[in-house]
Amino acid sequence: MTSLRVAPAPHGLSGRLRVPGDKSISHRALLLAARADGTSRITGLSDGADVLATLAAIQAFGARVERSGEGLAVQGGPGRLHEPESVIGVGNSGTAIRLLVGWAASIDGLTVLAGDMSIARRPMDRVAQPLRLMGASIDGRRGGTRPPLAVRGGPLTGIEYHLPVPSAQVKGAILLAGMAASSPTVVHEPVATRIHTEQMLAACGARVDLAPGRVTVHPGSLQAAEFKVPGDPSQAAFWVVAACVTPGSDLTVENVYVGPQRAGFVDVLRRMGADVRVEAHDPESSTADIRARYGPLQATDVGGVEVPGVIDEIPVLAVAAAYASGKTTFSGAEELKVKESDRIATTVTALNALGADAEGRSDGLVVNGGAGRPLQGGQVDSAGDHRVAMAAAVAALPAAGAVQIGGWEAVSTSYPRFEEDLQQCLGQHG
Ligand code: S3P
User: Fold this and answer.
1) Which atom of ligand 1 is nearest to the CA of 234?
2) What is the 121 CA–ligand 1 centroid distance (Å)?
3) Low-confidence residues in the chain, pLDDT < 70
């Protein structure tokens, strides 16, 4: 286990930086490139361990991957893909395992998917159930609900399915399987979730029909495409909140994806009175620069249909809430319990270890803000969760003393360069 000591930043954070490529888009770019006929090119891919697991997975299935200039060239197509020779390791990545189950469900042979201790407790029935309805054979621990999972691939038929839990991972798995089915597949979602799978399938030539709350994919072949992966808004959120809560800050994160269901944290922070601006917006690529400056924050309520669009940002938004005036509530977010850690418990524990006043609820958390008063220094454990570790690092920057974050290695799953980027934002003052 490694730990990181983050000292207070008395001069704030400043300058411009770029975050890793979006994790959700990176996983999908690799899976679609491996399935598409021809050679796809991918630039800007996330360098986190989660995405590297998907990269290794597509190679194990027979896709050919080569470095090409700034990015990767992936030679794929159904004719190349075959039963993998050994277990596919997904590490800590829930997105990798859930998308891969759907992606592999039509590939003849046996696919076994396994990951770390955190993956072993994450629910897989939400993907296994609809895929079984399509004709896939999926087994796993605890009655087929927990990894490792064994998928016996074969012919699939399309289904019409109402997602019981709003989840882009589950929607994505069903749509990826649906591309190889014998009839169209329709997914209804009660609340909108991120739309990367449907958009990127369409970019590969798939026929995708979109209606409010409903997506239909028509089976067919996919064509190679060029994927330019933009910066990850969920990583940008750490720097944006850091700038909002640390006196003296004026920071811009460049080239961030701001498409549907991903930039909700900007709205939440603005509601809190933060000085956050979306600049240089390019609607074509759904990217923008996000500029954030320090200022006083007020409490807000986060809940309802807004939740899927901020679910990954709640640990760091809770840090913003700890520095705001008043009581912030996060509700309707029970999904937090089944992320890389039980993020209701681990976020509350991390904040309170630094002297904040946070309390867990069955569907979220309540944070009584300290009205800008610095949190204390202290020790925080990541609980093996990258976002909890990075949220603790953000909480440390305006704090009264240094914060020691145990289990820091978890950050490599999504943001291996975090420390270097922090040094860069601290500039000569660091
Ligand atoms: C993701 C969807 C979300 C999100 C995860 C990435 C995706 O999970 O929390 O980090 O890439 O589809 P759910 O689908 O479980 O809501």
Assistant:
1) 10
2) 16
3) 428-430
